[in-house]
Design brief:
Helices cover 75% and strands 0% of the residues. By secondary structure, the chain is mainly α. Keywords: Membrane, Transmembrane, Transmembrane helix.
């Protein structure tokens, strides 16, 4: 049984590695057109910079600044909810591979990095905004 199992797994592995070859070639062109193919994969810091420079993220930074400047409880709550939903959307987008394998193949190829730093930043901002909304006013 040992040699037969070895031949079956090696044959199946050779067949399966050939299948996503065309998908891997096009994935990074679809997800990140400006990405330059290098030997080093994208890091979490690269992903933090890429996600922080999105227009929606810049708008959230502006809303957070307005909330901190005006100290209005409603703006703190709105900012906290939007940051929490942004972290949720990024996490689901990167780690829910049941519907779309493009993100998975982009991470495998190396043009997408880990979004953990951005998700941590979004959760930290959400926590600060929640504290600002709940702290007692004097």
């Amino acid at each position: 049984m040992g040699p037969l199992r070895g031949r079956v797994t090696s044959t199946a592995g050779a067949l399966l590695t050939g299948l996503p070859g065309s998908a891997l070639a096009e994935v990074c062109d679809k997800t990140r057109p400006a990405w330059v193919r290098t030997d080093d994969p994208a890091t979490a810091w690269d992903e933090l910079l890429a996600l922080s420079s999105l227009p929606i993220t810049l708008a959230l930074f502006a809303l957070t600044g307005i909330a901190l400047a005006t100290r209005n409880r409603a703006s703190f709550v709105i900012s906290a909810l939007l940051w929490a939903s942004m972290a949720f959307v990024i996490a689901i987008d990167r780690y829910e591979n049941a519907l779309d394998d493009v993100q998975y193949y982009a991470i495998v190829e190396g043009c997408l990095g880990s979004p953990h730093l951005f998700i941590g930043l979004a959760i930290a901002i959400c926590a600060v905004m929640t504290y600002g909304a709940l702290r007692p006013r004097t």
